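== Fold encoding ==
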Amino acid sequence: VQLVESGGDLVQPGGSLRLSCAASGFAFSRYYMRWYRQAPGKERDLVAGITSTGGSTNYADSVKGRFTIFRDNVRNTVYLQMSSLKPEDTAVYFCHVFHSGSNYWGQGTQVTVSS
């Protein structure tokens, strides 16, 4: 199982960013996928999740209405579209899958929201 995140950047408050997570080594289209984030000195928190078909999504209250998770089961990629970004969204963002009884994470991608 391999998850590779990309798309993190420095962005101004109110800006937008799209993160990508390219998955390999497992049957991506069969698995629930999640995005987490971890700010410095804080725990890793769930941001959003999406079912295997993309038909259902869930979001943390802090990002509802601003973030959208979606996936492309042909490209084996899950995305996180972020808009109206706030300084408190600054964190390392991780892609996650629970596969064969184990948690798998990517290396993370840094998102910094600052003027």
Remarks:
- The radius of gyration is 13 Å.
- The chain is about 0% helix and 55% strand.
- The CA atoms of residues 33 and 97 lie 5 Å apart.
- The mean pLDDT is 97.
